[in-house]
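Request:
Um, any thoughts?
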Amino acid sequence: MWMLFLLNIHCPFLDKVQNRTELADYDGIEILEDNPFREGVFLCPVNIDVVKKNGFARTYVDTLDFGNPVTQPVWRVAQWHSRYELADIQWKRGDEGRIEYGNGAKKIALYPDSSLLLELNGSWEYENARRKGERWPHLLIEQDFRNVSLSIGLAERIVFAMDIMLVKCENKMTEKTFDPSLHTAHSPFFFVVKNDNECSKDYNQRIWFGIPSYDYRYVSLSEEEKTMWDTGTNTYIYKIPPRSFWGDVNLHDKQWHKGSVDLKPFLSKALLAMREKGVFVNTKLDDLKISGMNFGLEVPGTFDVAVRVKRISLRYF
């Protein structure tokens, strides 16, 4: 039944779509695969330019299986612009029964409760405070949605949820060298939203659709949406107001916090905002799909930071 709603859209398909309320008759369909990370993760090389040139399938450097050698990962881990490689490191048992891979610069660990630790230590990555225009290290989990990718326009609701906890964040810069316009540690979440209708003039146009979470610079969560240009990927970013997802909480308090929201109203706002930028000008919600995601740590400053995340979910209703 769900095959009717796959987003490999061709023009005749749009004429055959059944009543949209059919989606509400089901208990949703989960888009993310392997939410508990049982199948492990593939590891990308530190050099993003190598992947751009040759593709991930030809360049991944290791499989982190968390002690389960028979795995078929759907997740991958990006370690862009790091000075240190996580490949070829043997896992070990850590605190609270976690299975971890790590060195001084970064760490990935899986806990018995299926939460995943991401740790990135800028004190290892930087010899000096980052200057304007310089790249910064990333540690990201990524997934392309390969099995079921539904049209945004067909869904009644698109419910995204996740739990996050800050484990640590230590500013290793001095008051003199720290510049909040250049330096922070944060944990953004991005979906890839693209026009997948081959009959549309905007076919293959895409944006980053963001859900902000922890940011060293801000204790109070904003109620404002943001639109910006990402020079690294030559793509527009639309970010929802973080308070609309997390509520009025303090993500700095090193406690678990759960966020949940229906993304569809924000996706409608994003479409309108992008049209003002000259993107998705000929696009309807029916043309759009969410094709993938990434989440993790970006450290454009000398910070030692770690977060845990669990129960990531994207459900269409």
Summary: Residues 62 and 157 are 37 Å apart (CA to CA).
